[in-house]
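Slide 14.
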Amino acid sequence: MPAPRKPFNRGGGPPSRPGRPGQRPPQQGRTRRPPPRQASARERVLELVARQTARYPDLLVTEPETNGLDRRDGALAHAIYDIITRRWLTIEHIARRILRRPWEDSHPAFRATILVGAAQILFLDRVPPHAAVSEAVDWAKDHGGLAASRAINAVLRQFVDLAGERERRPTWTDQLDELPLSDGTALVLTEPILPNDPIDRLAAATSHAPSLLRSWLRSMPLREVREVALHGIAHPPIILNTAHAQSPLPETAVPHTVPGHHVFTGTHEELLDTLTQRSDLWVQDPASSLAVGSVADLRPRVIIDPCAGLGTKTRQLQATFPDASIIASDVDRLRYATLSKVFSASNQVRVIPYERLREHAGTAELILLDVPCSNTGVLARRPEARHRFDRERLESLTGVQRQIIADSIPLLSNAGRILYSTCSLDAAENEEQAKWAARWHSLSVSRESRRRPEGGPGQPPERYTDGAYSVLIA
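Slide 15: predicted structure.
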């Protein structure tokens, strides 16, 4: 069905009826206006996805607003939005097969309504399809009029037909009529709607850009590309770094296959209580801890962490090198504010503005460069990052990374070393950067480590890890 020709009404409701100039509506005594109705979980997600669709592919890292919703409705809002960010391109592929006009030519609110409705129809078994269609149609009518609601109804009904009885296969077998699910099973579609080309089919089934998968093919066999793509639709567990625990762990911490890490199985409230009470535990995936762990045998007296972010690796540095003086910073003002708050009471970690790092030239025996990257090793945790990948952005990122390396060299002492780290799978951000530093700055390269994402749909959470790369440059 074609999308509505007229734009959705941006005023938040159906167009008002014109009246005669100067004419007031008849009044029969004052009446108290009823309080405004609180938006439902689906309506809140619709509003958020409409804003995200308008700025696609530069999706904001955000969550739906759930204030005022009960726990069940709040969980529904988060579940719908999480599915959309993870399976956006899967839904878009199917919608393109259904629509008569190009997907990108449709109004952002129209696309958002399809995404929200289809996410529930295809991937949320506990939501009756008629409920997903009904509320999407009502929202479209309020924001775009009758024609918009009819078009939405027609498109979503085809999604319902495609999902059929929501039959499952025990595992995903890469057929044209099935979609892999986060629990390891596969949703059977009533039609073979996926592409014939194996990479295009994998891209549509797992919601990755074909260009991203083909970039992985340059350094991985197809079997590994398939495994990494499936990893991206998994729900990642909460993993604690427990390598420096000073007392027994809570019963909610289950050993991970990587030593020094445990999967947290308790509630969100229990996690907050644990982290508040235990400074020797923090949330960190084994891939994230790879870099600092690779240099744990060193004894640096001064460490500089210029890209500290929210301080996860800074905490690991603090625990790994208790006798070192650590200087941390971040160029982003919001992250810097958080970083300052986290370490405000620390006698070991000093947080300073990024521009003041130059005052410590020639002092660092170790510099941790956890540089901005494409996040392709952590797409299960950062699903919005998969939509931003293209070669132009990658070239821009590698330029930034090289500048950070060059700017950090003056901070090194005579025997100082740079620990370079990313959560990327792309050699251009990893091995090629190490080679560049060695060639242009006469530095040596050692302790190169790469971790490919492991675990995935249907596999035990104790086997899950993200992907990462690190190298020591001296």
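Speaker note: Confidence is low (pLDDT under 50) at residues 1-7, 9-26.
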